[in-house]
Amino acid sequence: MQLDLVTGLYVFLLAAFIGFEVIRRVSPLLHTPLMSLTNALDAIAVVGAIILAGEGKSNFAKILGTIAIIAATSNIVGGFMITDRMLKMFKASGPRKP
Amino acid sequence: MFASENILEITYLIATALFVLSLKWLSSPVTARRGVWAGEVGMLLAIAGTLLHKGIVDYRWIAIGLVLGTIIGVPLGRVAMTAVPQRTALSHAFGALCVTLVGTAEFYIRAPHVPRFMMGVLSLEVILGALTFTGSLMAAGKLQEVLPQRPITYKGQNIVNLGLLAIAVGIGVTLVLDPDKTFLFPFMIGIPLAFGVMMIIPIGGADMPTVISLLNSYAGLSAAAMGFVLGSKLLIVAGALDGASGFILSVNMSKAMNRSFTNVLFGAFGQEQVAAAGAKETRPVRSASPEEAAGILSAASKVVIVPGYGMAVAQAQHKVRELFDALTKRGVDVKFGIHPVAGRMPGHMNVLLAEADIPYDKLLEMDDINGDFPQTDVALIIGANDVTNPAAREDQTSPIYGMPILDVDKARTIMVIKRSMAAGFAGIDNPLYYLDRTLMLFGDAKNFVGSIVRELSGGHG
């Protein structure tokens, strides 16, 4: 899969703008879960590592790819788990608030 | 184009949309958990789609990686809430490790025939990845207190650090111009690894919120660069979102500490704390016992509690919750005023207080609570210091002049729970403590709040 520089930059630029607009609206109350969630999403880098370890172009690539899968997967699993645990704790004062 | 290729692209597209929605839903505590769910579904789709990729010939290593990663990830998802800052730093390190390793492997698969554009983004990927890896490990070590927390500074530190970074970038440029010089590649990894360590050495505890946010941003940008290398739009989007998030948080944190953004970018942290350690204060302060404090609190109608890192260290949040309950039961209006840099990472105090079951609508940000202090009967400060220092507003010679603070000095009575009169992180004396309206409550935060709660419940049941 190849991507030319200009297309890539368009994607990056638009995603960065969306990111700024969406994340600016996140309440400071939730900044810690925000960081753990974006960190888990960032671990999507695992797809690159999976292809690297699976294609097996060299043993070197296989080994690095496998370590990379371990690192990214632990971020995915741990990141989503702790984000959900944190968010579960945030409760409003009224017992029947939606 | 085969069917599997199309399926892969479509799963990536859906995952991209879900990731954006995930962050959108995080904007409010009401919808936030849906955001986690969206992120998880997007992630599963993308991984499942990737496993169908036709280039994959061997699933054994992938399976081992996924299983081991899960085994490591589960305990990291179960750490205590007080350990969240170091866990976050560690996860930045893992993310950066993944990116650096993939970048390294991609280089050696292609070397020496790496196209210029790819070599450029690959250099960016591994430089950012490597420095984020060691930098985050150092930050995690300092937060976990396995490394000395005192900032270590020496003359010319910034020059040495910037020099290292410049050499790494220079190697990257050389490789772009002349990809045959493959022997240079290990240096392009090794020097940023050293730079990451050097960058964090001068960092002290109170600078951690800024540093963690900055490392967050670097981790995101390195992943985006990896997206360019692999030609993956999904990865570019995820990296850009993470980079933007870290960037916004870094800017917030640097504003809250009154540092310019360039100051943050160049890692010039922790330079100011030696400034004002000169004259020892000998002015008298008024101190009070738990009984007196309980008496004043129960007579108040509006109380604002200002928590800081000291509350986290003393593990006092559950006792604070008991105090909140006891006062609320007596009809006292209790709110919390939270400074953006209170604690060791953005939002740290909110998570600890939410864990102690304090409703989130009682947790107010600095700008929302500051207008309330003139009508507040008691401002109770627990383990916070510099963020309440009125010198930041009034004394132009103070090293923290201009830093936004919580205006606790405008409350009718100020109570400060503190272990001793020792200065805060910045080493600056706090004039707040010498006001006539200020009562110093000397002791461990957890024990002192516990004693106040006992007095309150003992008195009337």
Largest sheet strand order of chain B: 3-2-1-4-5-6
Q: Work out the number of β strands of chain B.
A: 6
Distance between the termini of chain A: 46 Å
Shape descriptor of chain A reads flat
Percentage of residues in strands of chain B = 5-15%
Largest sheet of chain B: 6 strands, parallel
Number of domains of chain B: 2
- The total of helices of chain A stands at 4
- How would you spell out the order of helices and strands of chain A? HHHH
The best one-word shape of chain B is elongated
Mean pLDDT of chain B: 88
Which spans of chain A have pLDDT < 50 for at least 5 consecutive residues? none
Overview of the structural elements:
The complex is a heterodimer of chains A (98) and B (461). By secondary structure, chain A is mainly alpha-helical. Chain A has a domain at 28-89. In chain A, 74% of the residues lie in helices and 0% in strands. Chain A has four helices and no strands. Chain A has helices spanning 5-24, 31-42, 46-55, 59-89. Chain A is flat. The mean pLDDT of chain A is 90. By secondary structure, chain B is α/β, with parallel strands linked by helices. Chain B has two domains: 3-265, no CATH class; 290-460, TPP-binding domain (Rossmann fold). Chain B is 57% helix and 7% strand. Chain B is built from 17 helices and six strands. Chain B has helices spanning 3-25, 32-51, 60-77, 84-110, 116-143, 157-177, 185-200, 208-230, 233-256, 261-265, 290-299, 309-313, 317-329, 348-355, 366-369, 391-394, 445-460; strands at residues 302-307, 333-338, 363-365, 378-382, 413-418, 438-442. Chain B has a six-stranded parallel beta sheet. In chain B, β2 (333-338), α14 (348-355) and β3 form a beta-alpha-beta unit. In chain B, α4 (84-110) packs parallel to α8, α5 (116-143) runs antiparallel to α8 and α11 crosses α17. Chain B is elongated and about 75 Å long. Chains A and B meet through α1, α2, α3 and α4 of A and α1, α2, α3, α4 and α8 of B.
